[in-house]
Every structure is written in structure tokens, then in C-alpha cells.
Specification:
Helix content is about 45%, strand content about 0%. With about 220 residues, it is mainly α. Helix 1 runs antiparallel to helix 4 and helix 4 runs antiparallel to helix 5. It is elongated.
């Protein structure tokens, strides 16, 4: 390997680290109000089939725990490695933060053309593959989280008390992962756990305490 090629490869590593940090910071600086509703980018698609695409075809439950949580990297960030509460207001904030995290990963992927500035053309497909491999699973996890939590919230809003712990409690550990998706713990009466939706508990469970989630 020539010295020049070594410098180029080292520059690629440094550039990716900087781009991940920069795009994460840009998404972090966007006001929370911009993430409170699904826009074109974040809305659920028919192909996702209520999360079944991720649970069945992509088997997200098998690998979501391997993904990191970058929610607390910046001051005022929102860690998503575990649920700190189960009330609807907190879960709505959690849903909003999945949109923030998803945007950061999309921005990182879209930064790939920057590497054309110092790499030969044939390296760009490799860089694009790296961008997809590192950001794609995180985007999938955020969308899976959001679909399942929205289902819990929708059910809780239809109950008289509106409490998630009563009508659609957050159950056993393994629930919402960091960048790693909602696990087996988000439960709500009438859900369909076999299809990647909200699991069906044998009886309604009340959420209590902090639930530890897969990273």
C-alpha cells in the first residue's frame, strides 16, 4: 500500500466519524416541535405492514440489541436505551425522538458524495455500501420503535384514563431499544405479537419502575 493510499483510507475513517457527529448534531439542534408529527419522511408506509416487515422479514428482534444508543451524546439529548416512564407524555416524547434519530441517520447516508472529493470514482460504491450498512439498521430500528409505540399510545388514548400502564402497559424487559428497536416488552390488549405488532399478554400488566431495554 502506498503512502498516499494510506492517507486516503485514514481520511475516510476520520471523515465518517466527523460526518456521523455532525449530522447527529444537526438533527439534535432542530427544535423538538418539528418532530412532533409525521411528515413525508417519517410517516408509516404500507410496505411496513404495521412493523411486520421488520419483525418477520428482517428479524429485527434478533439483532436490535447490537445497535448503539447515541441519544445522550449531546447536552440535552434523550437517551433511548431504556424507558424512564410509561406515561403517554413521555412516550410521545420518545416517539418524537425516534424521528430525530432517523433524520440524523438519513443525513449521514446522504453525505456519501462528499467522499468523491478525494477518493477515486470506484471507491464511491464502497462508501455507499458502508453508509447503508451503518445507518440502514438504525433507521429500521427507529421506524419499528415508532410504529409499535404509536400503537400503544393510540390504544391508551382510547381508554378512559388514558394511562399506558392500565390499558396498554409496558411489560417485561426488552421493550424499546436504543437505536435497537422495541423488543418484546411493549404490550397492549388486542395486539399481535406474532406479526411484529404490540404483543398480547395473558393479562393486562401495569408498568412500574424503569424498564431496561436492549441497546
Amino acid at each position: 500500500m502506498s503512502a498516499r493510499r494510506g492517507v486516503v483510507i485514514a481520511s475516510d475513517f476520520v471523515a465518517w466519524a466527523a460526518l456521523h457527529a455532525l449530522t447527529g448534531y444537526v438533527a439534535h439542534r432542530v427544535p423538538l416541535e418539528r418532530y412532533e408529527r409525521d411528515g413525508w419522511l417519517f410517516r408509516e408506509r404500507v410496505i411496513e405492514r404495521g412493523g411486520r416487515l421488520y419483525a418477520d422479514e428482517l428479524q429485527i428482534r434478533r439483532w436490535k440489541h447490537l445497535l448503539p444508543d447515541a441519544g445522550g451524546w449531546f447536552a440535552g439529548g434523550f437517551p433511548k436505551a431504556q424507558l424512564a416512564a410509561s406515561d403517554p407524555a413521555y412516550l410521545e416524547r420518545f416517539v418524537a425522538e425516534t424521528r430525530r434519530a432517523e433524520l440524523g441517520h438519513w443525513l449521514a447516508m446522504l453525505s456519501t458524495p462528499v467522499f468523491a472529493l478525494w477518493n477515486p470514482w470506484w471507491v464511491l460504491p464502497i462508501q455507499a455500501g458502508y453508509a447503508l450498512a451503518t445507518n440502514g439498521p438504525c433507521i429500521v430500528a427507529q421506524r419499528y420503535n415508532r410504529i409499535r409505540l404509536r400503537r400503544v399510545l393510540d390504544r391508551s388514548h382510547r381508554t378512559e384514563g388514558g394511562g399506558v400502564g392500565q390499558a396498554g402497559g409496558v411489560g417485561q424487559p426488552g421493550g424499546v431499544g436504543a437505536d435497537g428497536g422495541v423488543g418484546e416488552g411493549v404490550r397492549s390488549a388486542g395486539g399481535d405479537g406474532s406479526t411484529g405488532g404490540v404483543g398480547v399478554p395473558p393479562r393486562t400488566r401495569r408498568a412500574s419502575g424503569t424498564k431496561r431495554f436492549s441497546r
